Amino acid sequence: MARKLKAGFFSFTGDEGCMIVLLELISDRFDELSQKMEIAYWHVLRSKKWRDINDFDVAIIEGAVSTNGEVERLKDIRSRAKKVVAVGSCATTGAPSNHRNFFDERRLGEIDSVIRRFGYREKVQPLKDFVKVDDEVPGCPVMEEPFLQVMQKYFKEFGVG
Amino acid sequence: MHDADFEIAVESLSKIEGHANLVVSVHEDRVVDARLEIDESKRFYTQAIRGKPYAALPQMVSRICGTCSTAHLLCSMEAVEEAVGIVPSEQVMTVRKLAMYAAWIRDHAMHLYFFSLPDLLGKDSALEFDGKEHELLHDALKVKGAGNRFAKLIGGRAVHPTYFQPGAVTRLPKKEEAKATIKELREIRPMVLKLIDLFYHSGQEFHRTTHFAAVVNNDYSFCGEEIMLSSGMSVKEDDYFNHLMRVVLPYSTATGFAFEGSAFMVGALARMDLNRGSLHPDTKKDASQPMSAFPTKNIFRNNLAQAIEILHAIDASCEILERTDFKEEQPAKPQRKGGVGMAAIEAPRGILFYQVDVGEDGLVRDGTLVIPTQQNQINMVKDMKTVVQANIRKDHEEIRKELEALIRAYDPCMSCASHFLKIKWVKA
Questions:
Q1: Contact call for residues B54 and B358 (beta carbons, < 8 A)
Q2: Which of B47, B60, B127 sits opposite A110 (nearest CB)?
């Protein structure tokens, strides 16, 4: 069987709209992409857990980093993947999931109990502040064509198709 | 030998919108605790919207949920319009109806084909559909694709659509585009009929008594001024919030909403219960037998209701696209600087409510929203207990499957849920 790009799709802090866009993009080109890509982990499509996989070719990640738990998870995913792609505005810049970075004292006071109880970090930050990110695709939601270009690049690099 | 004490825990339940954990604890063969834990970080939109120009609000709150973005966009827009006295034209409302029909098609198709159908066919994933089932995967891609292209035509994008503004639509569908859309929607219609048939004969059952609540109207569209309850009570959309009561769930850290003190349910099943007389005539004709399943107390019929709604969305949209001659028009203007506006709409998963307070300076002073999953929360947690108790002697893996399938039938959206949950910590 021909080699496929072993991919995992991950969500961090955000509205998960990028994953919806990517799912629709892949659905639309399913005949082609399913030959080249193995969806090894994707929460919306199958129950397989990412912690049971440690040889992802590529981790495709949406969302920003808001909690200490997310930093740990991000580093763990990075250690299991040859490439990490940050997709969408939250993952690449932190916005718009980072509203609280700009809150005044009064608003910060209102959210303080949640921030402290759940190990939220002082600021919401993009992925590259914590791990090496190999490629970034901007957009809110993520732009389709630039994402496909990154995938095409990996198909070549990994000798797929 | 089975254990009298155990815990059924589903970490990060797959095949739902967003991330949630299910935990049910059993002691001496009795369910003592059930929790639906939301595994998402809060983004604090309630605080973030304050001080923003009202016209920017809809695009901002669209980002509360990528799945339900069109619903958040259009509901908040209606609330903002009411606050500043913008009266959208009939054409604007027609285009918005098309946008929500497209959202229903995309969303329901995602839920039915990718989330619920694997449970029905005993597969882990739609990607594993093979043999005769492979055709269903093909259908799924076609139906989702058609809904997606339809959404893009009407709103510019399927997620966070760009063509909608308070009082205006910035781009209208052209004749030939409408024609192409009608053709594509007609092509998926037989596939949707097949889907309806599949869920009609699913045999999945979980009966429970509950109240239903839905916006009622005469065209089964997303909007209307009246909210009907299965108790026979009806309230105006502006009054809806006054009847809701926040309830802290017993044995749980979560809160949900009750209507006049009673747990209730919103979504496709509620709409079908209360408003099915307003479905499109073509839908009624071709889905007459499956529609005989309603009214029902079987929660799994939410899946069938969604499948029928896809058909209705196709039929109603084709009719609108055929008969409407879209014409450029001037945007409706605000008649005052500020005020309070309220709106309730039918998002794919049920009633979505927004209240927005706009100051004289045109900036948002405050806002409140109630999302569908929050209104179904009390029933969902209660039913988690019931389903585990009813199957308590079965193998744990089997109980887990029953539990997962039932929660999926409710079609919760955890991205929305992450926003609303106020966590109350009960001191031991």
A1: yes
A2: B47
In the numeric block, the tokens 């496709």 are attached to B268
Interface of A with B in 123-152 (CB under 8 A): 140-141
Q: Contact, B369 vs B48, CB < 8 A?
A: no
Query: How many other C-beta atoms can be found within 10 angstroms of the C-beta atom of residue B336?
Result: 11
What is the CATH number assigned to the segment(s) B46-208+280-367+396-415? 1.10.645.10
Domain A5-156, CATH homologous superfamily name and number: NADH:ubiquinone oxidoreductase-like, 20kDa subunit (3.40.50.700)
Question: Contact A47/B14, CB-based, under 8 Å?
Answer: yes
Write out the two tokens for A33.
Answer: 């992409």
**pLDDT (tens digit per residue) in A16-56:** 999 999 999 999 999 999 999 999 999 999 999 999 999 99
Residue B422: pLDDT band with limits 50, 70, 90: very low
pLDDT per residue as tens digits for the range B315-363? 999 999 999 999 999 999 999 999 999 999 999 999 999 999 999 999 9
Structure confidence at residue B112 (pLDDT): 98
**pLDDT, tens only, B6-27:** 888 888 899 999 888 898 999 9
Closest CB to B63: pick one of A27, A96, A114.
A96
* Separation between Cα atoms, residue A61 and residue A77, nearest integer Å: 10
B286 φ/ψ sector (left φ>0, alpha ψ -120 to 50, else beta)? alpha
Dihedral over Cα of A31, A85, A45, B156: its sign: negative
Q: Can you tell me the distance from the alpha carbon of B196 to that of B201, in angstroms, rounded to the nearest whole number?
A: 9
Contact B125 A17 (CB under 8 A): no
Phi, psi of B28 (to 5 degrees): 45, 50
- The answer to whether A36 touches A70, Cβ cutoff 8 Å, is no
